[in-house]
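INTERNAL TRANSFER SHEET
From: sequence group
To: structure group
Subject: SpoVT-AbrB domain-containing protein

Please process the attached sequence and return the structure record in the designated field. Keep the field labels unchanged so the import script can parse them.
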Amino acid sequence: MSESEILYYAIIKKINVKDNNTTKITIPREAILAANAESDYYTIVSYSNRIEIRPYELKFAGQKQD
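Return from structure group:
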């Protein structure tokens, strides 16, 4: 199993498919906190009914060209 597959199965603990074709995925809080700690590019915010992935604003320090 590749590293990404192991991570996928470790994060997504439970998937429930309901009658109206909606899917509920349970992601442990620890996985969200770990993802936020590891990423320099985005933050994950979890709510009771959704998860948002928000990119950080990238600020570049450039040199003035003559």
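Handover comment: The first strand starts at residue 14 and ends at 17. The mean pLDDT is 69.
Transfer complete.
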